[in-house]
Amino acid sequence: xxxxxxxxxxxxxxxxxxxxxxxxxxxxxxxxxxxxxxxxxxxxxxxxxxxxxxxxxxxxxxxxxxxxxxxxxxxxxxxxxxxxxxxxxxxxxxxxxxxxxxxxxxxxxxxxxx
Length: 114
Hints:
single chain; 5-stranded antiparallel beta sheet
């Protein structure tokens, strides 16, 4: 007989990695497409890690990301699982509604189009 340390709760599935689902990607890529059309953004990268998923946005390919859109399911019941992080690491917006969190970047689109 074996005894498991910290067994997962009944019915809980432990994912190997966190990823954005199709609905989330649709929302993110819609904003990304508008910013590319405005000439603000040029490239992106996606990282699916064990504890979080990151959509990184670049102005040019060979530089640090301007923004990171992060999904951390562990924070779902606390501050919200989505966050927009600036180039300097500052959290610009955090919440549980992805569209509401991305509004902080849409404001930059309005300024860019003027």
